[in-house]
Amino acid sequence: GRLIDHLHSTTIHKTPFAKLVKGTKVLVLDETDRLLDMGFKRDIDRILSYFSPKRQTYLFSATSPPGVRSVMADCMRPDFETIDCIHDFDPATQTNAQVNQRYVVHPESMQIDVPIQIIRNIMDSDPNHKIMAFFPTANMTSFYSQIFNFHLSRPA
Fold first, then answer.
1. Number of neighbouring beta carbons within 10 Å of residue 33
2. What is the C-alpha separation between 130 and 126, in angstroms, rounded?
């Protein structure tokens, strides 16, 4: 949304931003599958329309569902190449069996309390704990880090 706003209304040194991006030589689309999951297909298409088709495009995605393949077909050259970094049949890419993994599904109303309680329980039960928690945004990661570091006096 913010990029579209810039494309429509930002001017740099008397030149519209939309005109400046036409000369872009490399375009990077990161987390494409997540963007599509959040309903941004129309926005991606609008943004792509501002860039020269002669650019080089890098598209990164953890998964390759039909929507991602459709974006690839729309924004990349016909002879584009894909690189699969994780092969389901390759044991070297699988999670180590000794790494304990968990996930929890909870109501949205408990999105702050549940992760804090789970992480605190692990910290309390194992003095040598090692925890890696993933949150959907950098702001949310920072938020939880501040809670543990400053409000709960538990270094994170």
1. 17
2. 9
Amino acid found at 80: F
Q: Report pTM.
A: 0.54
Q: Count the helix, strand and coil residues of the chain and give each as a percent rounded to the nearest 5.
A: 45, 10, 45
Q: In whole angstroms, what is the distance from residue 127 CA to residue 74 CA?
A: 51
Altogether, the residues listed in the chain come to a count of 156
Residues with pLDDT less than 70, the chain = 85-99, 156
Q: Which of 75, 81, 74 is nearest to 26 (CA)?
A: 75
How many other CB atoms are there within 10 angstroms of residue 147's CB atom? 16
Under 8 Å between Cβ of 37 and 6: no
Instruction: Return the ∠ at Cα 5 (arms to 139 and 141), rounded to 5°.
Output: 5
What is the enclosing helix (H) or strand (E) of 68?
helix 66-75
Residue 25, CA distances (Å) to 51, 72, 73 in order: 9, 17, 18
Cβ partners under 8 Å of residue 60, min gap 6: 28, 29, 30, 31, 32
Look at residue 92 in the predicted model and tell me its pLDDT.
Answer: 53
